Amino acid sequence: MIVTVTPNTALDVTYTVDGLRPGEVHRVGDVRNRAGGKGVNVARVLHALGADVRAVLTAGGATGSAVVADLAAVGVAAEAVPIGGETRRTTTVLAGDGSVTLLNEPGPRLTEDEWQAFATAVRARRADVLVCSGSLPPGAGGYAGLLGASPSILDTSGEALIAGLAGKPSVVKPNADELREVTGLRDPVAAAAELRKAGAGAVVVSLGPEGLLAVTGSGTWHAVPSTVLRGNTTGAGDAVVAALALGLSRRESWPDILRRAVALSGAAVLGPLAGDVDLTHYQAEQGLVAVRARPD
């Protein structure tokens, strides 16, 4: 079983507008609400692929209840740890020109008891692969204490990423900006090598339309999509993590994992909401992704 961990759960609210103009009144063409947070999105993608997955998340107040109800409605197995604060909302504005604007609330503060209950729920699941994703809410104890002997993926940024390396995750997945922020290095290969020295087993870097760079103990690869897609990019990174988790659970080679990850990332860009994937594109694109080995 793949277990996803979301300490900073959200209800994702997506608005569609003709154009986004600061300081003006906008008429919203469409509003959609769904359970969110990066780990929840990963679980949703894995569920769509038929994988055995369970999401462990926090949930508080009426918003938390809406999150739990949404996951139950779509059949995603979830264990919600109750908290006293109200689960946050994240707002995505999709404009007609293709731009995507995100407003992310910080999330409610967790008490020490709430964090310990959450950590206990994570450890109780005997995961084949553990996925720790997203920002940490105030009061959270950090990801390093959740990582154990099982293969694991850490997808976060800033201080949470640096601190999480102490848990020796199997894979970390920053994007290029996040990697530069924590290392101060512009060369992604050199920056990834620094994260490996600090405890990461492998580093997979999202390069946007240029695909993925993987720096691992067995080699370095660059995987590139067959075409550049336009759409909603908010869930693309979570789709990459879902592909990494599936590949680790099946013990696939890195080139095969990267082909799936690039294809699934593109399929997420074509999906209307974070956590959605265009399975037709995913199946067709896997055979078209170019994976090239790079010198270490």
The count of helical stretches stands at 9
Query: Strands of the biggest beta sheet: in what spatial order?
Result: 5-4-1-8-9-10-11-12-13-14
Write down the Rg: 18 Å
Mean pLDDT: 95
Percent range of helical residues: 25-40%
> Got a strand count?
14
What series of H and E elements makes up the topology? EEEHEHEEEHEEHEHHEEEHHHE
Instruction: Assign the structural class, choosing from mainly alpha, mainly beta, alpha/beta, alpha+beta, or little secondary structure.
Output: alpha/beta
Overall body shape: globular
For the sheet with most strands, the description reads: 10 strands, mixed
Instruction: Give the amount of beta strand, in percent.
Output: 25-35%
Separation, N- and C-terminal Cα atoms: 33 Å
Low-confidence stretches: none
